[in-house]
Amino acid sequence: MIIILAASSLLFGYLVLQRLQLYLARRRIIQENNCKPCPYVLNRDPILGLDILRENVRLADAGRFLSGSQARFRRFKSNTFHNRIITSPIILTVEPENIKTILSLKFKDYDFSNRKVAMDPLLGDGIFNSDGARWASSRHLLRPNFAREQVADLAMLERHFKHLLKYIPADGSTVDLQDLFFCMTMDTATEFLFNHSTNSLRMLDQQESSANEDVQFARAFNAAQQDIVTRVRFGPLYRLLSKNTVKEGADAVKMCHAYVDRFVDDAVRWREEQDLEKKGSSDERYVFIHELAKQTKDKTRIRNELINILLAGRDTTASLLSNMFFEFAKRPEVWRKLREEVEGLQGRIPSYEELRGMKYVKWCLNESLRLNPVVPSNSRFAIRDTVLPRGGGPDGSSPLFVPRGTTVGYSTYTMHRRQDLYGADAEEFRPERWEALRPSWEYLPFNGGPRICLGQQYALTEAGFVTVRLAQEFKRLESRDTNGGVWVEGLTLTLCSKNGTKVGLFRE
Ligand code: HEM
Asked: Quick one: which of 11, 261, 345, 375 is 20 to 30 A from 369 by CA?
């Protein structure tokens, strides 16, 4: 009994000492950095913070998750506030200096935390879903494959664009461009990554057999992505969902892996033949999957990296195009200016340099990514006690202490619509504003710091190319939006239009 009592008091003493040490260490950080507390707290429910969870679900269902989050910043008249869901502390910020600190200056103080759990089944530990040394090794492996020469295969884009054109009615009747863009980016990304295109635009053909395995893969990939969204939404409660939902997700993931594995097997076999024949491959056409096979024979690793890039690159580019064309359809003057710029090509397909030199096309892309950033919010998880430069004190100008275990979320959507940064018309689509804008961390569609998007040039090339080619083909487009042209958030893994991009296009 005495031994138990002595052991308990020792343990108690040890825990008290630990707490005291932690308290003193934190007090030192707070004093040294002049941190002040942030007085703005979102939760009204002081115990579990379930009020905000409920409100978030309601906002998401109404297609107002992002605008609702923007309204919270406005309500507080603050660019940083606190929140808590269940027991997890959260800091939300739209302060460029804070975002720069999380993503770059104090990069090593943060990781992804929960995101990994939801994405693991489909993505494994590929670049998009890993941290630390594992991520650094993926980045090192993949980065050389995004050099300019590799992302500028305009002949490939033209082939798929021609295919897309076939699905646009010639008589001006209504078409949902969003559906077409999502298929086309799947087709181009799979050709770029696997050296084999799904040609999923065929999904839109009623006659096309759904037994085709490329088309089946495209469908399974969509379902596997939906499974990630469900996992993110339900967190630990995911396992309580109906058996069918869970099984559908698992089946989709299995099918995606099996489909990609075939191409990986071919690539590794190709590399082994190269090794046997001691062939150099300098005279060969660039093939992404072969480049990976040259560097590793680990088949699971190659498959994971390919699926990670497909996930990172496909919906994002399609969403950008969909959001931008939603705006074009309502703004004949913007379309006219685009066509004026494109007329310089005299009907030719643009070269990479010509495409890059098109100022108005670039302004439109920038403006769409500003107003509706396709990755509209993001977060990082503090793995040690750290400090943000702003957000403390009533006016938010003092540093803010961030205890280990805090999630720091940032809303690119709200930051991109701040009137103090972009002017009184920040909520409007106005490409001309880019004539004078030279933003830094206040404009972050592709993130910044060591994890900046690897596919930025690829995406801008593809989206710019499709825009130029459509402007060459069609004189006029007309919005046929079912919601009177009022854009509604369609938020899954990326941000697109909930009601699609329904338009009529006219050649004359
Ligand atoms: C408009 C199109 C795109 C946008 C707005 C975009 C945006 C982003 C953002 C915000 C991130 C950071 C995510 C995070 O760290 O939480 C990211 C990462 C990434 N993106 Fe993109 N992306 C686009 C297209 C692409 C394309 C086409 C590819 C590849 C073909 C690609 C490949 C990647 C990869 C591999 C990463 C992970 C980088 C890393 O963690 O080191 N992205 N992208």
From this structure: 345
pLDDT in tens, 470-496: 999 999 999 999 999 999 999 988 999
Report which ligand 1 atom has the smallest distance to the Cα of 447. 10
Percent helix, strand and coil across the chain, each rounded to 5? 60, 10, 30
Token pair 């021609």 in the structure block, residue: 162
How many angstroms from the chain centroid is the CA of residue 396? 28
Burial class of residue 372 (count of CB atoms within 10 Å of its CB; 0-12, 13-18, 19+):
buried
pLDDT digit string (tens) for 341-392? 999 999 999 999 999 999 999 999 999 999 999 999 999 999 999 999 999 9
**Most informative mutation of 323, 453, 458, 462 for ligand 1 (most atoms within 8 A of CB):** 453
Topology adopted by domain 33-506 = Cytochrome p450 (1.10.630)
- Residue 180: strand, helix, or coil: helix
Instruction: Tell me if 297 CB under 6 Å of ligand 1.
Output: no
What's the CA-to-centroid distance between 311 and ligand 1, angstroms?
9
